[in-house]
Amino acid sequence: MIAEYRRVMNELNDAFQDYYTVYNKGAKQIDDYQLTVQQENTMLFIMRNERTTAHEIASAFSISKSAVSQVLSKLEAGHFIIRESNPDNLRESFILLGEEGTKYAELINKADETIVQKFSAHIKLEELEQMLRTVKKINRVITGSEEEQ
Q1: Range 2-143 has CATH code 2.40.30.60
Q2: Helices and strands: H and E segment counts in the chain
Q3: How many of the other CB atoms lie within 10 Å of CB of 91?
Q4: pTM here?
C-alpha cells in the first residue's frame, strides 16, 4: 500500500514540475529577472500580502529573520521592494513592491491570466477546487497542522 502512495506522490510531483515548466515557458519574461527560487517565493508572498513585515515572511516560510533580511536586501537593491517604517513600531518596516517589483507582479498576473484562460475551458471549477482541497489537506498532514489553510 505504501508503494502505491509513493508512486502516486511521485506522479504528483512530476505533474507539478510539468506545470511549472509549462507555466515558466508561458512567462519567459519572468526569467529575465534572474531571481532565485527563494527570491521568487518571497516576491510572491509580498505580492499576496501587501504591507507585510520581515517577521511575517520568516514565519510563513519557517526560516530565520536573518535569512529573510538577506533576501530582502537583494530585492531592495534591485528595486523589487521598498521598506516603509511602521509608525506604530519604529523597529519594524512594512515591505512593499518597488518599481521593478510592480513590473514583476504585472508579468506574473498576466501569465496567471493566460493560463486560467487556457484551462478554464477544459477543467471544471469544481475539479480545480477539489484539487486545491486535496493539496491543502496533504500540506496540513505533512506539517502536522490541524487548521484549515
Answers
A1: no
A2: 7, 2
A3: 6
A4: 0.79
Cα torsion 65, 68, 74, 79: sign? negative
Total residue count of the chain as it appears in this document: 149
99 within 8 A of 33, measured Cβ to Cβ: no
**CA-CA distance, 95 to 33, in Å (whole number)?**
19
Q: Residue for cell digits 537583494?
A: 74
Cβ atoms 96, 51 nearer than 8 A: yes
Calculate Rg over the CA atoms of the chain. 18
Split the chain (149 residues) into runs of 10 and give each run's mean pLDDT.
Answer: 92 90 75 90 96 96 95 98 94 96 93 86 93 93 73
Largest CA distance in the chain: 56
Domain range summary for the chain, segments of one domain joined by +:
2-143
The one-letter amino acid code at 133 reads R
CB neighbourhood size of 142 (10 A)? 8
The grid cell for 37 is: 527560487
**Please, what sign has the CA dihedral across residues 47, 48, 54, 57?**
negative
Helix (H) or strand (E) holding 80: none
- Grid coordinates of 25: 515557458
